[in-house]
Amino acid sequence: MKVLAAMSGGVDSAVAAARAVDAGHDVTGVHLALSKNPQSFRSGARGCCSREDSHDARRAADVLGIPFYVWDLSDRFAADVVDDFVAEYAAGRTPNPCLRCNEKIKFSAVLDRGIALGYDAVCTGHYARLVRTDDAIELHRAADAEKDQSYVLGVLTPDQLKRSYFPLGTSVKAEVRAEAARRGLAVADKPDSHDICFIPDGDTAGFLERRLGERPGAIVDESGTRLGEHAGSHRFTIGQRRGLKLGDPAGDGKPRYVLDISPVTNTVTVGPRESLEVGEIVGIRPSRLGWSGERRRAEVQVRAHGAALPAEVIMDDDGCRAVLDQPATGIAPGQALVIYDGSRVIASATIDRATTDTMTAVPGPA
Questions:
Q1: Which of 22, 87, 297, 336 is the most buried (most CB within 10 A)?
Q2: Residue 101 bears catalytic tag
Q3: pLDDT digit string (tens) for 244-298?
Q4: CATH 3.40.50.620 for domain 2-189
């Protein structure tokens, strides 16, 4: 099989490419240049896609003895990931840029170009498992629960999964680093990248303000009483506690949390933690990965490393609703709602809203 190995310059993608070579595949390494003006070096574990990362990827490919290329996808990344990120915050939502990058770049732009060049699959260092059957392919959680990335892959289509290859799905991170050291890969001890790759200094609010401008507005309580002023609603997300900078404490002395963000009025509503509790999550733009019914018991995950929440889920072509067994907090519109049957991802949607109201849950076949 001809395999295109996406090599970020980190330890995971390097070992994934090595395992593809060991499996007898015809492997070519490719590093994605996603920034128009990349930094020369990474700042510890912050960011990625620097010139240092490109050099690390090339050195790993040299050790493995495979061809290596750099593909400039900076225009596509800027349009599909960065601009989307800014637009979502401007609309009062909280996007997940890693999920969007997987959907639009790694498994769309790269896969499409790879197929056009005669490759059969794209190999990455994601921690997730693929189970292939006679008539389907299943996406499952990784063996390493702490590193599991099935959530950010839940937006992929069945056709994309059929041409995906995740060699690290059955491994834990310590094993991967030890293997990299044994293979003589210089990235064996390189820190994992964290935060948002295109905001290497970690200042998300500053990044957004440079693109959206200063947009001061009111911070109000649930009754609409003005409590203070914010420097821009893009600085907040649902469930946030820190950074409100309200001089007067709440009447009961308890902390306040962000309950709602209204881009129309540029208002941030705050209140007690119990007001964050929701019982139903409504999703739009649904996508199925093996679930063909309309109603079933399942578990839903609402953030990349969040807990799986038992729920009853109803889905059709227009959207889905998840009625939670127990109330949850901090559900942010714009994030993904990924639906699991045990370890298997069976569907996903984009969170549109969450409410305290719940529909009457009618038991249905699994």
A1: 336
A2: yes
A3: 888 776 777 788 999 999 988 899 999 998 999 999 999 999 999 989 889 999 9
A4: yes
pLDDT at 136: 85
What length is written for the chain?
366
Q: What is the pLDDT, as a whole number, of residue 45?
A: 47
pLDDT digits (tens, 9 = 90+) for 1-17: 999 999 999 999 999 99
Spatial separation of the C-alpha atoms in residues 193 and 74, rounded to whole Å: 19
Residue 332 and residue 339 in contact, taking contact as beta carbons nearer than 8 Å:
no
Domain coordinates in residue numbering, the chain: 2-189, 214-275, 277-355
Q: Which two tokens stand for residue 180?
A: 């990299």
H/E element holding 3? strand 2-6
Q: Is 35 labelled a binding residue? A: no
13 known member of a binding site: yes
Selection from 327, 324, 337 nearest residue 94 by Cα: 337
What number does CATH give the domain 277-355? 2.40.30.10
The Cα 151–Cα 348 span in angstroms is: 9
Q: Enumerate the H helices of the chain as residue ranges.
A: 11-22, 51-64, 74-77, 83-90, 97-101, 110-116, 150-153, 158-162, 173-182, 204-212
CA distance 304 to 307: 9
Residue 54 labelled as part of a binding site: no
Strands 164-165 and 217-220: unpaired
Q: Which of 48, 49, 123, 197 is catalytic?
A: 197
Topology alike, domains 2-189 and 277-355: no
Average pLDDT for the chain: 89
**9 in a labelled binding site:** yes
Domain 214-275 is in which class? mainly beta
Report residue 39's pLDDT band, with 50, 70 and 90 as the boundaries. Answer: low
Distance CA 3, CA 181 (A): 23
Q: Are 115 and 267 in contact (CB under 8 A)?
A: no
Flag whether 6 is marked binding.
yes
Asked about 197 being catalytic, the answer comes back as yes
Distance CA 283, CA 349 (A): 5
Candidates 137, 141, 130; CA nearest to 158 is 137
Among the listed residues 49, 101, 123, 320, the single catalytic one is 101
